[in-house]
């Protein structure tokens, strides 16, 4: 109860920006400053990046708990541009409306509002690399380095010593110095390339593969890699190329140490499991398995990317051709290296959450490559519910029409009562401290990058204002090709013929108590695909009172692997229901890179723009009305117009909307123009001038 009340209070504060138009009056005094300098020799050249400054409760390591649901830290973020080692960065104020250049504080806090007490204080600099993409746009982003892209303290980050500080509540300056670099892991494997995707040592059962992606390297203008961890079944012999195995492609986050099926770097559990399975013993028991061992290869991917710990395994305008890199470069390499069965029925996609979305999207976009997906509690399949946000119809992503806050993370207590752990507003504001322009390496931002197109500012065209939550329907419109039920229905009958071709190949599972409300998007997906395909077109299982996590249909892993194996057997050429070649033809393919970048890259962003235009033709007489349009701008750009005669304002600037037609009756002679100034968070403010018309007698 207390927590919910607390959330409501702080979110109300944030939401009030909408009404007041800014925060300046709330934080117009400046008491506590933090000045951060850089020890000599730590930066090799001018550096762009994000500084994250944290105040943790006395005696607590600042990185001990930075989670949105539980952190007691006060977290501040500020961008730096061309930082040199003679420069000092000053943090003051906070919750700055300008997140591009100002200080953003969480939870909705200014430095001046930090209660007097003792804190442990430390700052970190995430370094960005300025790159020019193949479509000509230049961006400053962080490229991860074999560490799964944490949102702070990533490999290569600068950090200050942690200091214990008494915040006194009056005028005070805290001095910090970046004096160290986060070392990251020491890589010992024999794979190619630097730290991107890491380098790991092979064991008998577990092989690591990494290739330089030609397509990604070309797109980013630097070397880019994709990797895979390959678990081989016991008895596998590289020389026995006659014995070939189906492959389970297990999608998910960066495969770090240990973890569940589809996660663990050495996929430790799976290795143990594969051993036991092959020896006929059910893991953790001494029970002999009822069935002989399945012989399958398990593959997890390493595709840490700018923006997140993985790329979502599809082609996107903001991350580049990761779908092609994985499916057309890495998988062929795996198939040349290992004895796999090279046919769709023997390539299965599975995963949960992020991996749930990746696995279903992989099959929906590439029916020519993969046989089926077993997708568990996937990220929103249908944006009628993006988590709990009614993205197509709501006006605000944070606050509903009735004034209540949209929840983002929940749990259920012993009595089955829902307890909200974070709202969408709280979580988005928390993300903002780690990066602006969708660069926080957190969940809502990676969705913006993957589902949306590139904005005119070269960063993801965000679907709503990250501070206020105001939704921009025109930006949401660009998400539609990544709304998977919309994609299926749109391609139901055409040359892709997905209604026929994907039938019987899509399995989805979710629980009604999903921690992130992902059950809601699954319900929408089921409703829309059932409406065109008949009930059960997609095999959707919704289990009551199951939270986020676990295997498909909450099965034991043994049971689950048998299910996968049976699907493969049934759909093999000699199986009960062989997968027809016609359903896996090349025409079924979607998410083509050329289309994605044409629709979502720089050229498309430029083509969306237009200058204001005076529509009245010919000579205009003093005292007669002229009409003009205000130009075309990206969604969310706030516009102010002004009439100008002979280069001098002839009226006050006034607010306009993109759809407005504006009118003016010039009172004097001269060259008349309409100037329109557009401004948006993270965009350069720009004034565009219309054609000029002559006003005469
Ligand atoms: C801060 O924590 C330390 C132990 O870590 C303790 O000795 C000290 O008294 C605490 N200071 C305050 C003001 O609570
Ligand atoms: C880390 O946080 C946990 C719980 O939030 C706390 O019990 C523990 O003492 C903290 N450890 C350090 C080193 O700060
Ligand atoms: C917000 O940031 C702008 C740009 O850096 C700065 O001019 C302004 O003083 C800041 N306001 C507050 C309240 O921090
Ligand atoms: C911080 O550094 C400035 C000079 O850069 C110095 O004048 C000031 O005394 C320092 N403050 C503290 C608390 O060390
Ligand atoms: C840098 O940080 C590492 C890890 O915390 C530490 O072992 C090392 O002593 C630090 N180096 C300096 C110069 O402070
Ligand atoms: C596989 O073949 C290679 C060379 O063809 C040979 O060196 C190796 O010993 C063989 N391995 C096995 C397990 O037979
Ligand atoms: C299973 O057999 C393999 C050899 O094929 C052996 O290395 C492994 O230790 C055995 N695992 C178990 C759990 O008995
Ligand atoms: C399996 O059998 C071994 C040896 O008999 C015993 O030590 C172990 O506890 C048993 N494990 C289980 C899970 O029953
Ligand atoms: C569950 O309900 C019981 C009986 O009403 C109550 O005593 C208990 O505190 C509740 N538990 C929680 C976690 O709310
Ligand atoms: C399939 O095609 C028919 C005829 O072209 C059309 O009437 C129908 O609406 C289409 N169905 C879908 C789901 O697109
Ligand atoms: C859906 O899939 C499950 C296995 O996950 C299977 O038991 C069930 O029969 C399938 N339902 C239909 C209608 O095919």
Automatic annotation (TrEMBL):
Q: Which residues form the signal peptide?
A: 1-16
This protein's superkingdom? Answer: Eukaryota
- What InterPro entries does the record point to? AB_hydrolase_fold, Esterase-like, Mycobacterial_A85_antigen
Question: Which Gene Ontology molecular-function terms are recorded?
Answer: hydrolase activity
Q: What Gene3D superfamilies does this protein's entry cite? A: alpha/beta hydrolase
UniProt entry keywords in alphabetical sequence: Hydrolase, Signal
Annotated Pfam families: Esterase (PF00756)
Does the keyword field hold Hydrolase?
yes
Q: Does the keyword tRNA-binding apply?
A: no
Which PANTHER family does the protein's record reference? ENTEROCHELIN ESTERASE-RELATED (PTHR48098), IRON(III) ENTEROBACTIN ESTERASE (PTHR48098:SF3)
The protein depicted here goes by the name Alpha/Beta hydrolase protein
